[in-house]
Amino acid sequence: MFILSSSLLKSTAAALCTLAFSASVALAQVAPAPLKLAMIEGLSGPTGNAGEAVYRNLVWAIERVNARGGVKLAAGAAGTPLALERFDSKGQSDEALSALRSAIDGGARFIVQGNSSANAAALIDAINKHNEREPAKRVMLLNYSAVDPVLTNEKCSFWHFRFDAHADMRMAALMDVLKDDKSVKNVYLIGQDYSFGQGVLREARRQLGLQRPDIQIVGDELHPMARVKDFLPYVAKIKTSGAQAVITGNWGNDLTLLVKAAKEVGFEGKFYTFYGNALGAPAALGDAGVGKVIAVADWLPNVQTAGSEAFYRSFRARYPQAADDYVHMRMQLMVEALAQSVEAAGRQNPIKAVDAMDLVAFGAQLEKASVALGGQSGSMRASDHQFQQALVVGLMDRQGAPGVKFDVEGSGYGFRVIKSLSATAAELPTSCKMQRP
């Protein structure tokens, strides 16, 4: 039997400790602290499905950046990985503000949010105040879905960047289709009773007056957001009104339940929607929605380009379950713009650690960001931090029909692109008067 002496044991243990310490130091050198993004979103309750869908998109976008080495905080530096933390706002502004404090305390530099314009407005106000009080701990809000136009007009902020087309831009795209739909003589307006829903109906009234003054508005109402369990009474009024079309900005369960109720009462009219192409709405309508549901988006899976198809197939390979089939190009472009701008700021003002980032310098780069992915592209407008990108309008049809190669969420129904607007055509003026730090 071979026995080590006590002195040899001690020296061996010391050597192992030294090696372990050296290895940990080396690891620390090659694995810098990550750049933290904090997603503040409704992940539970009636809007939880939309929040989880966003989370999958952001995870996929961050995985792509990290797979190519992360972001470089200085020319020639090792890549810094991106890390995503999630906070459940439960769809409430007070919870979102509490999550913001936790995210900042945890070292997040970028807040990502979108599924409520009311929450976005509260976060913008809080971030403005925080950044003024604590310039060494500044944070920035990257917004992927909060589309109330006021956020890049009257409430525009240097610390807020929006990557979705705002509601007026989306409505203009829908009106570009509706103005040629001569079968529609009467419309019913219905929406969620908060800033976004109110704004959608207000803009619908304005644009109908400009584009189709011959159309009569036979109903105009708001309902409590995420609290209506049965839309049958609403849809009964829609059917009785004689409307040939409904215009709505509803999203999440408020849209799914609305279209389900429409199917149950046999409503034969069309739906002009902001979000009718996802989260259960196509499956809820089934054949009743074919040729009747119109949706506007920054991108649709059936955009007829090779780059678009490769992009979509890549997402489905990452998330193969039909229920997870919710992908938005704008969220991918947002993370690409973040990575691009971090590296551009690092070339101008090299740093060694994330906590030394100058968000003013970063913002100056993000204002100039121009990104492309999967054949789609967009650029940030510096005057108001509103991303400018092409928009498409789709019409629901059965999978396999001309122009409908891909369905939605395994429903057997997809959206054929019937109108494409370039970024220039989709652009609208801004009233923003940016206060810069």
Helix content: 40-55%
Number of strands: 17
Which stretches of 5+ consecutive residues score pLDDT under 50? 1-10, 12-21, 23-28
Question: So what's the CATH class of the largest domain?
Answer: Alpha Beta
Q: How are the strands of the biggest sheet laid out side by side?
A: 9-8-10-11-12-16-17
What sort of overall outline do the alpha carbons produce when their principal axes are compared? globular
CATH topology type of the largest domain? Rossmann fold
Radius of gyration: 24 Å
Q: Estimate the strand proportion.
A: 15-25%
Number of domains: 2
List the total number of helices.
13
Characterize the biggest β-sheet: 7 strands, mixed
In short:
The chain has 437 residues and is of the alpha/beta class. Helix content is 41%, strand content 20%.
